[in-house]
Amino acid sequence: MTTTPGMIEVGTAEPVIQRRRFIPWIQSSARTRRLGWWGTPYLFILLPVGFLLLFTYTPVVNMFWYSVTSWDGLSKEQDYVGLANYIRVFTRPEYFQVFYVSLFYFVASFAQLGIALYFATILSFQTKFKNFFKGVLFFPYLINGVAIAFTFLYFFKPGGTLDATLAFFGVDPGVLWLGDRSIANFSLAGTSVWRYMGLNFVLFLGAIQSIPSQLYEAAAIDGANKWQQFRFIILPGIRPILGLSMILAISGSIAVFEIPFIMTHGDNGTMTFVIKTVRVAFENHKVGQASAMAVILLLIVLIVTWIQRRIIPDEKVNLV
Amino acid sequence: MFPHARRKRLLAITAIASAAALTAACGGGDANPSPAPGDGGDTAGAIAGDLTIMTWRTDLLEDGTLDGYAAEFKKLYPDVNIEFQGFTNYEGEITTLMSTEDYGDVLAIPGAPLTPDKFADYFEPLGTIEEIEATYRFVRDKAYDGQAYGIPVVGNTQGFVYNKEVWAAAGNTDYATTSADFVAALQNIKDNTTAIPLYTNYFADWPITAWEAYRGSISNDPNYVNSLLETDAPWAEGTDHNVIDTLIWDIVSAGLIEEDPTTTDWESSKGMIARGEIGTMPLGSWAISQMQDAAEAEGLSRDVIGYMPFPAQVDGVFHASVGGDYNLGISVYSDAKEAAWAWIQWFMNDSGFADAQGGISPLKDGGFPDNLADFDAAGVELVEQLPAEPGNEGKLEAIDSSAEIGLGQATYRKRIIDAARGQSGETLQAIFDDLNSRWATARAEVMGG
Q: Lowest CB count within 10 Å: A135, A263, B254, B351, which one?
């Protein structure tokens, strides 16, 4: 049973007969009836909102200002340059080349969603050792990103774990997993998929399990096979979660930073947009330019979100 | 839902209030305790106060060496309390701190974007250049408008650390005098031993910046850095930068480096060169004692590590760049400037830090360390770069930043290494042309405008 907003429970135990007259009175005066001083809720949110303003909104507003200056991070003066920083990002090739690298992660994010959906589907039904597999699949998401990056650095080293495992099976591709520019991005994208698939998996699992099970029985009686059940029952039922995961995966693929930064520092053709931003800010000492790049990233994510919400609108699907 | 019984509500409010009070106490771990307001510091003539010293030597902080120095200092100046703060990424973090008024009392002066014309805004002048140069050397780097703002903790020279046994086993007898000889010598190592001829330490980023320090010594030109402001083609045929980068290209394209540069490891490279698994590494002279320590840790003799100059001679003589390491300066917002100056003088003159580190002493009449005996034997002459002309301070950094090359950064040489490995498809001349054109455009912007 869902609660309608505005309804307040009466705490003290009331006899049932009295409650029948009492409840309409409660509901009509729900807005005016308070518990204690009116300012208590505001006191509670004062601290979190204060932190939000101090650590999130103030720096972001500052960043918008820096993006139209040529500040170098230290000078006491900041010279206004208008939109020059923004124009430079789209006209100098070394800036927008980093978007090509993001394509690798973009495609990988679809693979990530597909794998997560597959595992979520088969683990929603009767499978042996279900809970063990759920734990194993979700575990990578809990590990710290830096630790994962270092572990995979040893994994991809020449003579490291991957080479040793392949040699055990008698395969020796003889490639440098990170040293070869043509496959380095695949290695990094694969690491990223390994890390984040667990989150998508758990979200899909929860969404699939909220679908009433009578539907599957009814479909089975009607003669639907597993694939048809998936396509016509599961997919529509998890549409909001699917939409949310797609937004997260796509905007995440543009803003990927941790894994390539620690594993290759963005060298050898693996530089992503955020790594380029950090480089420009702290190596080339152009905080103004880097702020402009950060604002552009924000706009890209907003546009992607808007497009995705238009294609897959957020309507509630009523299966019952 | 909500507990309506008064007792439960009281309990909840008490719990929340005590939790909030606890978090307030957490703020007590103040990172920068403000120094004591000069109590008796200036008036009584006694040196007193609290010093916060920012250090980039996190290794010495961890093993207690710096605390040992502080204890020695306290014997002479018992009223001074010293606290050290270490930074692993010193340049990045101290530059951010310097946009506040609270960045310690004694700190090392960072590089770009702190150009000399801004020194007076952040650092206290230590004296005129003449006064400071009476006792110390290498001070012109951090001086401006006749005032000196910092004194280096050690002097460094530049060359290649090498394993003497590996080079001998490869059949190399003398130091190479030209780039071609050097490449041939590395080829000998590859053919006759199992060692990696030259280890780039590509992954760690900062070792790649060591190549930049050879500039000025190849052509024995103390005005080389200043001349970069006048030229539109710093990578033209025959310039120092051209020689350095062509050498890197030749070494890498001949396959004389490690198999996969993207997975190198700095810490283990020290043990590797000591054991003879690496032949050569391009590093400053500060690294010699670290490699010798690694050799000792492996149970080998310290003498297995040698130091050779860059393979270039002018009139039959080797030359090597020399300059100061990090310079210590006093914050202009410090409350204990007398104590800070006492510390700096004691550290330079009496602490023995330079000797302990195997570096060149900053004292004018300090000698040379033992581990540069190879340089002595080879007759290497040291070349110090002249500081910028008055009015041109900071212009080099401005051009570099505008062109987005990063002479002192790893990115631009990593591009050369990647191309030489065949990864990016660029040729060396294409890279040089691109760098030259970017430099020319930026130079016109900074100098011409």
A: A135
